[in-house]
Amino acid sequence: MAEEGVSWTFSPPLAPHFGGVWERLVRSAKTALRVVLRSKTVSEEVLITLLVEVEAMLNARPLTHLSVDPRDNSPMTPNHFLLLRAHPHVPPDVIEYSGSLSRRRYLAAQELAESFWRRWLLEYVPALTERKKGWTEKRRNVRVGDLVLLVEKDTPRGKWPIGRVTEVIPSGTPGDDTVRTVRVRTEIGEYRRPVVKLCLLKTVEEEDQERMVDGVTDEKHP
């Protein structure tokens, strides 16, 4: 790599904040694992299976623009670069078990993976929200065209329910102009959701600015 002109710059010891985004992911993964495992003693097989599942979840997060149109291509993820596909999962029915013990260990690892997924969402989604300081400011309401992540407790593992705000619903209280409920369109339907159950990914103003930079000014939001 040195021959190709690649040089390495290392962070100093005991300074994970130098890592920025990737260190934040490491911290959220560690926190979720700590909560899921607690003081449990698991076998090496279960631990390895859990870590592989965790790796798959983290590498399934979207890196590029997320569309709510089912006709559009799926967003790029780290898995696309590593495996050339979005998800590395193998259907459970094609797995051969060597016995009841292996099956119990597999199911135990899957249960831990589900617990990790739910916990990691609690760690990762707030991290996304922190980048959008305007989300918590009263002067910036949710608006039609905003791209949001739906925070659902029943979200399947590795899935990211992305939607676009299609309607803002007034509270009905005189003098209260704060938007607390909206309608969101996803690739599978339209839902009415409270604002507290959404995570702002990109404002309509940011998308308009990107279109202007790219020279595309005649497109309308879906």
From TrEMBL:
InterPro entries: DUF5641, RNaseH-like_sf, RNaseH_sf. SUPFAM superfamilies: Ribonuclease H-like (SSF53098). Gene3D superfamilies: Ribonuclease H-like superfamily/Ribonuclease H. GO terms for molecular function: nucleic acid binding. Residues 105-201 form the DUF5641 domain. Transmembrane segments: none annotated. This is DUF5641 domain-containing protein.
